Amino acid sequence: MTIVLGLTGSIGMGKSTVAKMFVRAGVPVFDADAEVRRLQGPAGKLLAAIEALFPGTTDADGVDRARLGQAVLHDKAALHRLERLIHPAVERARRAFLRRHRGRRLVVVDIPLLFEKGGWRRVDAIAVVSAAPWQQAKRVLARPGMDPAKLARIRALQTPDPEKRARADFVIPTGSTILRTRAKVAGIVACLSARAVRYSADA
Fold first, then answer.
1. What confidence tier does 130 reach under pLDDT thresholds 50, 70, 90?
2. What is the residue-wise DSSP string for 22-70?
């Protein structure tokens, strides 16, 4: 049996770093954000459709993320139209990933909006990456083009971190040391791999 672990966390919580830890531990990881970048990158499959919906947001290098963000961040209807285009394509890629790795005991699907878009219903367990609010803000505001107002708008679109932690099977801390985070990841891998073995034996 394969156990599917949903990995999520709010912006700036360190989810990408944690996903790499799972990869280094030998666990296949499906990266939803990376898939979106492929779909929106040079010669991406969704470029023409995005340009049709939001003229002037793409060029030969793919989607201009700043322009597309300006087009949808303040407009919920526009954001919904974009999501209706992107989410089905990402879901097809996720299913293909699961088929490729159906012989593994554990796989991870790294999905930022796992709670917000219902992806939690399609996983066997959930791990939330979390840090203190001030650490999150410090990380995000160090990024080019970010400011407190933009961070506030992004936070408003995401399930609050306390609620995510309350709904998680595992909480992975990133506000302390890298060793603590790595140890938590190793513990999760060991726990779920053993669970997969027990399920297979009982089947």
1. very high
2. HHHTT--EEEHHHHHHHHHSTT-TTHHHHHHHSTTSEETTEE-HHHHHH
- Structural domain boundaries of the chain? 1-28+104-203, 41-100
What confidence tier does 203 reach under pLDDT thresholds 50, 70, 90?
A: low
1-28+104-203 CATH: 3.40.50.300
132 pLDDT band (50/70/90 cuts)?
A: very high
Provide DSSP, the chain.
Answer: --EEEEEE--TTS-HHHHHHHHHHTT--EEEHHHHHHHHHSTT-TTHHHHHHHSTTSEETTEE-HHHHHHHHTT-HHHHHHHHHHHHHHHHHHHHHHHHHTTTSSEEEEE-TTTTTTTGGGG-SEEEEEE--HHHHHHHHHTSTT--HHHHHHHHHHS--HHHHHHH-SEEEE-SS-HHHHHHHHHHHHHHHHHHHHHHHHH-
45-92 pLDDT, tens per residue? 999 999 999 999 998 889 988 889 888 878 889 888 998 999 999 999
| Rg of the Cα atoms in the chain | 18
Q: Would you state the pLDDT for residue 145?
A: 86
Two structure tokens written together for 135: 């650490």
* Sign for the pseudo-dihedral over CA of 167, 170, 171, 172: negative
